[in-house]
Amino acid sequence: MTEQMFIRRLAAVACAAAFAGSASMLSAADVKLTGVPEGSDLYQTLSGGSLLVEQAGAETQPSSQEVVAAAQADYGRLLAVLYDNGYFGPVIEIKLDGRDAADIPPVQPPSAISRAVIAIETGPQFKFGTARIAPVAPGTTLPETFASGQTASLSALKATVSAGVDGWRDQGHAKAELAEQNLTARHPDRLINADLRLAPGPKLRFGALGVTGNVDVRTQRIIDIAGLPTGEVYTPEELRLAANRLRRTGAFSAVALLEAERIGPNDTLPITAQLTESPKRRFGFGAELGSLEGLTLSAFWLHRNLLGGAERLRVEGEIRGIGGNSGGEDYKIGVRFERPATFNEDTDFYALAKIEQLDEVNYFSRQLDVEAGIKRIATEQRSYTLGLGLRRAETRDAFGENQYTLLTLPLGAQFDYRDDKLDAKNGYYLNASVTPFLAVSGSDNGLRTYVDARAYRTFGETRPVTLALRGQLGSVYGPELSQAPADYLFYSGGGGTVRGQPYQSLGVDLGNDNIAGGRSFLALTAEARIGVTDTIGIVGFVDGGYVGSEEFYDGSGEWHSGAGIGLRYNTGIGPIRVDIAVPTSGPETDDKFQVYIGIGQSF
Asked: Are 365 and 448 in contact (CB under 8 A)?
């Protein structure tokens, strides 16, 4: 195909897009692709790039004018696919009912089109002869596809240039660019010689951060939160981190850090933060239903910029156990204040107050918690917390009534390497907390620990199977069982531990139908999540739980277990979950099965 013909056909595509006709809707054209072995990778790639093939598989029938427009657009689309696979001398013919598609006026299409044939002569496939790019920054990894003997694809050239430029930018040369490219073809040898020259430019340092678009959030606070290291050597990673720090405040709906076009004085690069502020206030609510636990309702109100420095104030409330059979109804109301970038750009301050009533099967508790502390965001996946708190509570359990006051020092660490928080396919998650407590009254000094670990691995693509594992481990060290805070002890059973078993049905049996929480706790869960379609999945699971009176697990306590199946329906906000489970071991219960409904996977 000559260059003139190609230009003429591209012009026809533009005309087809510019006019809209009123041709009647017809049956989708029967599309046939010839000249390439059917089933080959190239055949699949060409089919995937063809608008005609896409139209033939569509649910709605295209008009003849749409068929003509698609055929004329396919010249350029298929040519790009062939170039990207090293075919630089192809011939493409597209005929609609035997007529060349490029010669059909798009504004006067045939009244009907019943057959389309795409005939391709690929010509020889070219390989790279010389494949050279210089200068390259130390440590730069270039694509393996850019090498002598590899297919001479345009994507390999683009990826190589991108890798070369990024290598220099990673070392402070923010204005690195492609300065020259020499591409020559040796047709008899079917070789493309590629010689690429990069211009690294000077090593730059971050200049001052400018701010635009902010209305209510103060400029200086934005600079503090971003934490851009002004005066230090430029790196794209620092620029990305600064943008993420601004995003995680929640105060901005759009964040862009733009590099200046021109280099500033003393080899500095000014940066501008272009921001769009989010609505300052937000309200939300949720619901979850279990056959035993009943209905849980929750709601919150959030202010994203309380004092003009992207401070967050969240007021939330929750009612659990409505219509359930897991004790009485539980209530919670709390207030939490967060100030980002308080001590440095990655250390936030928080303060909270919470009032909670727990009317559980085996104990009752009414408590007040006041706490303040810091949260250190080490990376996007790792964070740590340190707080100082005061807890005042009134409890009633198998040992009688008690009032206690504790000074607490909660410590926490979270590692979140999941690919999706609501529907993880791969990765792992770890949440660990250690809370030393000093008894002011009503208890003894001690230490409460809790670990929640989860891992995910997915196999297959057509019907993917995700294996999900979860382990929970808890301990209360220090006070005797009868003196320990009742709401610090552990139970097992229900949606968060062992499905199929009644809620908090396993504890320490004191005799005479009296059950108390345990000082040691272990729960294990395994799930196989199978994707049936893009939106529907099924799950098989087995859960096990252990509670003991000892401070650490030694096997002297008691186990129970449950198993079941579940259904998942994927939505834009996560999968809707329905699980049905039965008890499989442990103390006898009157319940034959349990049903759990919610949004998101069970863990």
From this structure: no
Is the pLDDT reported for residue 512 higher than 80? yes
Please list the helix, strand and coil fractions of the chain in percent, rounded to the nearest 5, in that order.
15, 50, 35
Strand 30-34 to 115-121 pairing: parallel
Cis, bond preceding 502 (omega within 30 deg of 0): no
So what's the pLDDT on residue 324? 78
Percent of the chain's residues with pLDDT above 70:
95
pLDDT at 292: 65
251-277 pLDDT per residue, tens: 999 999 999 999 999 999 999 999 999
Query: 91 by DSSP, 3-state: which?
Result: strand
DSSP conformational letter for 107: T
Three-state secondary-structure class, residue 20: coil
Q: What is the pLDDT of residues 25-40, one digit of tens each?
A: 334 458 999 999 998 9
Alpha carbons within 13 angstroms on the beta-carbon side of residue 374 total: 10
DSSP 242: H
At position 349, the amino acid (one-letter code) is F
Find out whether 201 and 212 touch, Cβ atoms under 8 Å.
no
Instruction: Compute the distance between CA of residue 318 and CA of residue 294 in angstroms, rounded to an integer.
Output: 13
Closest to 291 (Cα-Cα) out of 591, 569, 589, 567: 591
Whole-angstrom distance, CA of residue 438 vs CA of residue 390: 10
Q: Does residue 363 surpass a pLDDT of 60?
A: yes
| Predicted pLDDT of residue 3 | 39
CA distance 573 to 75: 40
3-state secondary structure 290-335: ECCCEEEEEEEEEECCCCCCCCEEEEEEEEEEECCCCCCCEEEEEE
- Asked if 600 contacts 537 with a C-beta cutoff of 8 angstroms, the reply is no
First to last CA, the chain: 58
Question: Whole-number mean pLDDT of the chain?
Answer: 91
Selection from 450, 416, 419 nearest residue 430 by Cα: 416
Cα angle 168, 378, 353; round to 5: 145
With tokens 């008009």, the residue in question is 63
How far apart CA 199 and CA 163 sit, in angstroms, is 13
Q: What are the strands of the beta sheet with 30-34, ordered from one edge?
A: 30-34, 115-121, 91-96, 99-100
The one-letter amino acid at 110: P
Q: Which two tokens stand for residue 287?
A: 């619901």
